[in-house]
């Protein structure tokens, strides 16, 4: 586009918008300084306790609920600091959006997901891991949930400090299990449910990685390796955006609207199919217009994936808020119910003020402490561009939707990071395959030395091993910490 076609007012508006995001990034960097971030986080935890005191009123159990609300707020802060990086990291790493834009989008959509569609997995978190009746009294149940909440928050805090994207879902499940064992022995744990949850933890990163690798293979085979890349992109980018739109529409129909109208899975899939077709038709002229003057090279393709990547990251944040707010407020909601009614064996009703604490805590945690993990996931595992990051986001969306529909508290961390690993390992395999193919075409080329082969690895093995090790020890570490805290709490209260 030549300069005479540019409206100066548009340029001024764009400059102002970019200036605002730059200012936000500077503000984020400032509050990320340890003492400033710690101070704001502490104020939020105190605020959560005050809200609990005002809402709950003056009863014998008010102090317990206030402390539990503070623990829940602390856990929500840690979810924002650690887990949200998995949704925004790929988009930031691919330079599709700035850190400031990622923080704003994530905060808005995480909160919307928590408030509009959250709470569906809470019954599994609070009730499905241990048999509440085995704990005997509501006091023992409350102590167990308090220990689980604090232990999981401490573990995620430690992981964030050392730069490891661990699963907050794992932490909470491990915490609940450890407190249950300390309170009533191994018989208190619902081992069948634990087996299903544990299986989903193994399956979800593998599935996320395979789906991401599959989409990257599709993009490479049908767009990147074609002679006319732009023509291929005009054909297939609208299809890929349609798949993403359909997947999220089905998810929102099942979860996001459940408080208004109940939609069965079959109907939700039909809604998703309709939205997918509409999105596909809308994107055909949009992509044609975007690609009008693009050169026929890989760098040009990044433009076409930029907006779909931002939209997918936003929708994935909504799904994460709906799914993972349970980790912060599930045990808190159980404590509130047991404290107010004495009932700790039936389904948990989540009060609105509890959901608000979870949503606000996730947003505050992201703003104060999130950039460190966003950079880790986006830049330090493998090199991402908009096409690769879009594959990660799309695979994470599909896997989270399937798992949430099944009611399994899977880890969005494992799914998203598994997608990043899947993309990186596929690139290694594809690069090796293409090198072998070119060598077979040109005989007499020497084989690469082992040192050179290691240097050309596209996934950093040190990060891979660190992250997998952190995943493996999360459940036993959170369980052991929770068991110890349960005994301390019982000692203080008893």
From TrEMBL:
Which Pfam family, any one, appears in the UniProt record? PHO4
Provide a GO CC annotation, any one: membrane
Q: Which domain of life is it from?
A: Bacteria
Q: Per UniProt, what is one GO molecular function of this protein?
A: phosphate transmembrane transporter activity
Transmembrane stretches in the record are 35-56, 62-80, 92-118, 138-160, 172-192, 198-224, 236-254, 260-282, 303-322, 350-369, 389-406, 412-429, 464-489
Keywords linked to the UniProt accession = Membrane, Phosphate transport, Transmembrane, Transmembrane helix, Transport
A Gene Ontology biological process in which this protein takes part is: phosphate ion transmembrane transport
Key word Membrane present? yes
Question: What is the protein's membrane topology class?
Answer: Multi-pass membrane protein
Cell compartment(s), UniProt: Membrane
Q: Which family does it belong to?
A: Belongs to the inorganic phosphate transporter (PiT) (TC 2.A.20) family.
| PANTHER family reported for this sequence | PHOSPHATE TRANSPORTER (PTHR11101)
Protein name per the record: Phosphate transporter
What is the native source organism of this protein?
Mameliella alba
